Amino acid sequence: MNLETQRKVGILEGDLAMRKLLQDLLNKEGYGVAVFSSPEELENADPTMDAMVASVTMLAGDGPLSLEGIKKNRPEMAIVLIPTAHEVEKARELVGKGAFSLVSRPFQPWELLHRIRRACELSEVRRQNQWLRRKEIKEANGEVRSIIEDEPTLDELEKRYIEIVLKKTGGRKDKASKLLGINRRTLYRKEREYGWVATYPNQPLSRVAH
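Above: the chain sequence. Below: its structure as tokens.
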């Protein structure tokens, strides 16, 4: 695994022996590993960390260093819990609050590695979704600026917005009318008013709507 594609996994564990075991296991698999002995140390951790393996006691509290607090600050990072036998129920509660999964101790190395690999894949998907949402918002804001920068009238602004929606939907009236919040009959009427559709059968259709 090269440095460009290396996935980063944190270990949040109070027990030194367990931290060492997990670190050795993940290093052998080619992960970039960061070790933390307390939640406070996460405040300066790499923000691009893909996943974290954590003991239940480290995340069971309240406030910014609890599971909820960490998820709020690092929503893309997936967390795998490694509870002891008497912590399983609490771990299930934490999974219900946003932890990705749990693997009870003593665990099989292959099982833990499988969950960590899936956690990293989930983190990657979340980051891609965030990027796409930001891209869509940026593009939408750019389009809004482009249709209002010459200070059009309300009628002209409506016309330009309908044109953008029709282009984005490929001229599909059902989809466009839903996005615009109007019925299809009103949309057809608007198109005729703007000269985008034929009034008579022998007239050509506009490229805007089709």
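Residues 150-194 form a domain with the Arc Repressor Mutant, subunit A fold (CATH 1.10.10.60).
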